[in-house]
Amino acid sequence: MRSSKGMRIAVVGLGFMGGVHLRAWRKMPGVEVAIVSRREHAGTGNLPGEPLDLSGIERYPDIDSALADPRVEAVDLCLPTPLHEEAAIRALRAGKHVLVEKPMAPTVAACERMIEEAKRAGRVLMVGHVLRFFPAYRALMDRDFGEPCLATFRRRCERPEWMKWETGGAVLDLLIHDFDMVLALFGWPCEIEASGSGDLIKARLGYDGFAVEVVGGWHPGKFPITMKYRVVGSRATMEYSFNDEPPPSRDPFAEEIAYFAECVRTGREPERCRPEASAEAVRLALAVIEARKRGAWKSA
Fold this sequence. Notes:
The protein is of the alpha/beta class and 300 residues long. It has helices at 16-26, 63-68, 84-93, 108-121, 135-138, 169-173, 176-186, 252-266, 275-294; strands spanning 7-12, 31-36, 58-60, 72-77, 97-101, 125-128, 148-158, 191-197, 200-207, 210-219, 226-233, 237-241, 298-299.
């Protein structure tokens, strides 16, 4: 039941990503945002000097309260990865549309259960793979580089405070951005090799006639977020470095959230960010983790 203020969305979880999403939702016209938090004063989104403005926002004490409210059309799940499946399925069964932060879930089986539940419920399920809304990465989808010859994707940042949760580590939580992009560009690899230790990894994905490297992870201490790529093709080499370029003119998270909201309003599938593709990104991340354990080439 849509209120006179527009679509009501409940943001579940107010850590770093919850704060990022909440700020984006609050700037969107035609949306009434609420939060799910057990505390009267929720967190700050972990952005120093930038506390969350929760003024005028209705607070639900738990997810059950939000799901029981007929005004809530959709939930935005910014929870630790192990909680994604249960929360998403409960929301879908309650008739809510679901945006869930990446990674979709800790296992492929969990992803598949979420997808099946969305189909049964006839509701939108979308995973927040923000690179698909990042102009520099979207540009790769035009394939102006021609036939691929070699590609490298790098991503690093400091180890997050919440790593005590069993999230799958940096491969599943951080580098899944790049695995999702690699699959969108090149499909499933023929071979997978991986090396590294702890939360730092180097993966080599073999294709017919070319290879892709994905390198990075979580660093100890203070370390700025770093992301870059180089794709060498038959017609051109495309390069990007987040740290050397001006920020996008539009916030990619705002673009992602606006796209999800439009899918909810129109009832269309999120073709730009299909849940089946998000499940495959989890499958590839887990295959890389397994390849590192084996320490040798394996057939993909």
